[in-house]
Specification:
Shape: elongated
Structural class: mainly alpha
Largest sheet: none
Radius of gyration: 20 Å
Helix content: over 70%
Order of helices and strands: HHHHH
CATH class: Mainly Alpha
Number of helices: 5
Distance between the termini: 62 Å
């Protein structure tokens, strides 16, 4: 199992425990917190690997959305169910941040160089058209 997919285990755990939180409120609170901390540790492990320079842009794939984006979003929903609204808001912010960052990396990494040049030409053309308008 590759490192980004380790986050599937606590993500599924959070969803299952969150479903049964109405019947077992105290136990579900502890288990949700345990799974959220586990997801945060996995995210920290991935970030440490990225910051150490061991990941190339070509190696980034959409599987990295699970620990960085889906994990915090799932955690946010479950944390709000148990009443931890401030932490849920922070988790949502983390997921939103990584959605923008990782989405940009994936979008720019998958764009062939010819499309980037064509986009630059279109921008230059529209700028010239605007200047030429009386």
């Amino acid at each position: 199992m590759k490192p980004p997919f380790f986050a599937a285990i606590p993500a599924v755990g959070v969803m299952v425990v969150s479903h049964y939180s109405a019947w077992f409120p105290l136990l579900s609170t502890w288990l949700i917190q345990l799974f959220v901390v586990t997801m945060a540790l996995i995210l920290g492990f991935l970030l440490a690997g990225w910051l150490s320079g061991s990941l190339r842009v070509e190696d980034v794939h959409s599987g990295y959305f699970l620990p960085t984006v889906a994990g915090p979003f799932i955690a946010s929903i479950s944390l709000s169910k148990i009443g931890a609204d401030e932490i849920a808001t922070a988790a949502f912010g983390v997921g939103l941040f990584f959605w923008v960052v990782l989405g940009s990396v994936l979008l720019l990494g998958s764009t062939p160089p010819i499309a980037v040049v064509t986009g630059a030409k279109r921008t230059r053309l529209s700028t010239n058209s605007r200047e030429a308008w009386p």
